[in-house]
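step=encode ok
step=design start
structure_in=
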């Protein structure tokens, strides 16, 4: 198994970090689409559309084509929304990582490197709403290097940095469809403190929630 090391971000890492982040965001599309399909409102709309068209056309072809079009449109809209979120991050903090994280007080950005290649990243900044916490952000590991303990090592790096600077806890947000991330955080010791519907009309009608976690640190 390949070895890895965790180190601070360098300017030469920027393209790899952005690519890994974008890839991780794109992986949310299938799980988010599956979540939408499981919602009672979605199933009711699809069933009513199918029955109405079947009754009016007396043919199975038209309702099947209509449902296919609806599902394809829904996935396209979802992909567009996730892409917009990705682009927003790439144009904000990930456009100048050094300025956003490395030059600010109690902030940092790390990468995981394996065999000369950047395969993961994580960052933290002060949490404006919780002065006792640092906020864990931009956790990403390339699919080819998952299962090696990289994400756990990145979590540990943030926790140690947070403790060393005198903060009491690490705080983070993740989505309900990021189930692997939830398992990682809970296994590491994070406690779920809140789950709420994400802002936006589509999130509300599909019951898409954001989960908050907190890791309480022991002084030592």
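sequence_out=
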């Amino acid at each position: 198994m390949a070895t890895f090391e965790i180190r601070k971000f360098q300017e030469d890492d920027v393209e790899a970090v952005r690519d890994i982040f974008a890839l991780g965001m794109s992986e949310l599309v299938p799980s988010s689409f599956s979540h939408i399909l499981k919602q009672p409102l979605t199933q009711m709309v699809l069933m009513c559309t199918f029955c109405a068209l079947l009754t009016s056309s007396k043919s199975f072809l038209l309702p099947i084509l209509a449902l296919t079009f609806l599902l394809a449109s829904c996935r396209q809209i979802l992909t567009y929304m996730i892409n917009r979120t990705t682009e927003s991050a790439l144009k904000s903090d990930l456009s100048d990582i050094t300025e956003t994280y490395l030059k600010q007080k109690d902030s940092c950005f790390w990468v995981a490197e394996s065999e000369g290649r950047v395969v993961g990243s994580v960052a933290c900044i002060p949490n404006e709403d919780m002065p006792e916490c640092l906020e864990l952000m931009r956790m990403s590991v390339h699919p080819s290097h998952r299962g090696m303990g990289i994400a756990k090592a990145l979590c540990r790096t943030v926790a140690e940095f947070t403790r060393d600077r005198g903060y009491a806890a690490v705080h983070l947000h993740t989505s309900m469809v990021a189930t692997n991330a939830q398992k990682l955080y809970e296994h590491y010791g994070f406690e779920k403190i809140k789950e709420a519907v994400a802002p936006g009309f589509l999130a509300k009608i599909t019951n898409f929630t954001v989960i908050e976690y907190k890791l309480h640190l022991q002084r030592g």
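step=design ok
step=annotate ok -> The first helix runs from residue 14 to 26.
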